[in-house]
Sequence to fold (390 residues):
Amino acid sequence: MKEQVSRHIYLLSAAHLFTDMNQGALPAILPFFIAEYGFNYTTAASLVFALNLVSSIVQPAFGVLSDKSGKPWIMAAGVLLAGSGIAAAGFISSYTLLFASFMVSGIGIAAYHPDAARYANKVSGRKKGTGLSIFSFGGNLGFALGPVIGMWLLLSFGLKGISALFLPAVITAFALYVVMNRYQRDEATASAARKIQSDAQEKKDRWGAFALLCVLVFSRSFIFYGMVTFLPLYWIHVFKQPESVAGTALSLLLAAGAVSTLIGGRMADRFGFHKVVRGGFFFLLPMLCLFNVADNVTYAALLLVPLGVALYVPFSPMVVMGQRYLPNRIGLASGVTLGLAVSVGGIAAPILGRVADAHGLHSVMYIVAIVAVLPAILSFALPKQKATEA
Fold:
């Protein structure tokens, strides 16, 4: 087995960056849609719902497809579709067509994650935590850069400027297809030999443990989307800051989180995956409570850094744990723990939008803090890794 993480992980991470950059740009776009078309919070948040609903529904299917016959072209097509859907939104004024364009982007995001995470597991060798953290870092950095780049494009060129996100999607999709096809051919013989060994040392899938992990994954996703969808609006309407500053606040949270993804993976390889996951969720709860009582913008901005750390440190360790709980279905496990971790929380965005319309943005942040109690407690119930899984 490889001792070092392969260089291919960096291409997968870069493709992850450009895929999730489109998803990260969406919350920054919402204030412009509200101003341009007169959407209310519920209507605007429903666009987040459109992207994440379709992504959540089809992501497990792409995970099963990855386990049966994963192909690099599926990953490349995913990157391309993710960029196309968001880029098209700059030229659309119809709410129905906007909804459809974000659904197209969601399909692309769902297509990319399972197979890419399966390849990331393969090229990481023994250092699964480190390898998956590099891969996850790309996606989280894309989420962090999405609001900044999206805001700059919108302020500089108007809504049509968002179409520029299509260019990196095309370039990355082409590179991913060419390089990973070559890698797949080179690995064909070695894979046959590994299959003989794995048949002799067959591991069992642990569905109960995986189901419990999913509760943590989905809870984190709810918290994540509650923050990233409404944080710019919170900055504008509660702290009375301009739109450009609101986008910067979101990027601060996501940038701190992206760096913490790398830290979390390395800590998991050294100290254990369970300890890192428990520590992250246990620290997240008080940070959310402090943020809710912040009464000035400086105090709230300072809290975004530890919030990002606590929210992202458990991210890549949970992906590896999911792959270890389902060793015979790594694509499916990756699609759920990595793909749905980014998507499923967006389904709740319209519900939170209704709460915001009826009771104000403070109520949304209180709900997010309440949900954080669940993973803080259940993380201690996750079963330990078996010796045969090491």
Observations:
- The mean pLDDT is 85.
